[in-house]
Amino acid sequence: MNDAAAPVIADLFEPVPQPALRVAGIDEAGRGPLAGPVFAAAVILRDTPVIEGLNDSKKLTAPRREALARQIREHAWAWCIASASVAEIDRFNILGATLLAMRRACEGLQPAPQQVLIDGNQVPPGLMCPAQYVIGGDATVAAISAASILAKTARDAYCGEMHQRHPDYGFDQHKGYATALHLERLRHLGPCDEHRRSFAPVKRHFETAEG
What we know:
The protein has helices at 6-11, 62-75, 86-107, 137-140, 142-165, 171-174, 180-189, 200-210, and strands at residues 23-29, 38-44, 78-84, 115-119, 131-134.
């Protein structure tokens, strides 16, 4: 083989630059409360600008979450927030409704993701691309952290709306969780249309009333 041919052969093995993989992070907010929908968000981040301070939304103050949520909506490649209703929670159970909300968030991304990383230990069925769960991903994977923040801020905003419609329950304070205040108001007032009837403290009210 003569020397002139060598560079041509070497060129055949040059790596071809590949476009960046569109990886979406998905997380939820609102599995535990006694009232309101469960929310999920999906986010595809860009390489730049890097959004500093992303973390599990539960480890951030409310003002910090709101500030980061604005940056995520402004700078992410794509994002989508979805939910599953109280009726869907009672019909499918909270896990099934959470996975449904996650799938809806993923399906709402434009452009569509090529891979999905989900916080927790479950993968929603029916996703359109490869997916895997990441235990503790909301604190370790930036795209999941971003999704955690969007889902949490959306859920908190909805709790504000619930408070406007049902001010006596204190949704602006306990966000629907089974705090002493919430349980006391539930006993005194009974459930409203936002309460999840399949959850034990709410379900007991109807069992007592029927008995």
